[in-house]
Design a protein that fits this description.
mainly beta; 1 helix; 12 strands
Length: about 270
């Protein structure tokens, strides 16, 4: 649940991806609001567990509030989206005929790259800040699809047993998206000497890590060689001769690259700009 005091602006929030000017914006405890544009506010209240999400289509986003009251744990998020995983190769249902080499397995699909985190400009007059976590991480790369197994070789029938098909290669993992850059400017509307900066606990946490690269897909296995012909020896022992060779296993997919970390700046202002 969120509340904009100026009722005429509620329609604007849902209609236009523009800068929204409002009197007050309150995000209730445990609720999430996705902004549809830049926000310029007189007063921002985020209750415990509230989350404000930057527009997913925006490469840059700004938030300004003349007074910010951030109660308990609150979150501002503009992290990139994870890439989709590559498709696994289909299971081969080919019926190999006698003397015919097994069909090779199909390669797995490539994982998509993760998208970059949004670049954010945040300017707040801090009345209260208990714990604020700003997340501009890049999205993780998608996992590569697994390669298909090779089909078995055809059995011997007036010929040698045929070779099994080779396994398909695993798909490459997608690269992680770059972390977004964050500029956090603030001035104090209370008696605090400064805003505590931390990697854990209370205070301000800013995360601009690049997304993790997706794992490469598994290689497909080579198909079994075709059965050789049966030969009965004078000792009445039956043996198999000239079976086909097993197909080679495919190559595993290459892991995607880690996305580049974004940068952040924290600027303390003596008074409101």
């Amino acid at each position: 649940m969120y509340k904009l005091v100026t009722f005429s602006l509620i329609a604007l929030v849902h209609a236009f991806p523009l800068t929204i000017h409002a009197t007050d914006l309150t995000i209730a405890a445990g609720k999430t609001l996705t902004a549809e544009g830049d926000l310029s506010l007189n007063r921002l209240i985020m209750e415990d567990g509230a989350t404000l999400v930057a527009p997913s289509a925006s490469q840059t986003w700004s938030l300004q509030a003349q007074q910010a009251v951030l109660i308990g744990k609150s979150y501002i998020r503009s992290s990139g989206l994870a890439g989709q995983s590559g498709a696994n190769a289909p299971i081969d249902t080919h019926d190999t005929r006698p003397c015919e080499q097994g069909v090779d397995g199909v390669a797995g699909g490539e994982g998509e790259n993760g998208s970059a985190g949004t670049t954010m400009q945040i300017t707040l007059g801090i009345k209260q800040l208990d714990h604020l976590q700003i997340n501009a991480r890049g999205g993780d790369g998608g996992v590569g699809g697994n390669g298909g197994n090779g089909a078995p070789g055809g059995r011997a029938k007036g010929c040698h047993g045929a070779q099994g098909g080779n396994g398909g290669a695993g798909g490459s993992g997608g690269d992680g998206g770059s972390g977004g850059d964050v500029t956090f400017r603030y001035w104090l509307e209370n008696d605090q000497a400064s805003v505590p900066i931390t990697n854990y606990g209370e205070g301000l946490i800013i995360q601009t890590d690049g997304g993790a690269g997706g794992e490469g897909g598994k290689a497909g296995l080579g198909g079994s060689g075709g059965k050789g012909r049966f030969e009965k020896r004078t000792t009445n022992i039956t043996v198999t001769r000239e079976p086909g060779k097993r197909g080679a296993d495919g190559q595993p997919g290459i892991d995607g690259l880690q996305g580049e970390d974004g940068r952040f700046r924290i600027i303390a202002l003596p008074v409101a700009p």
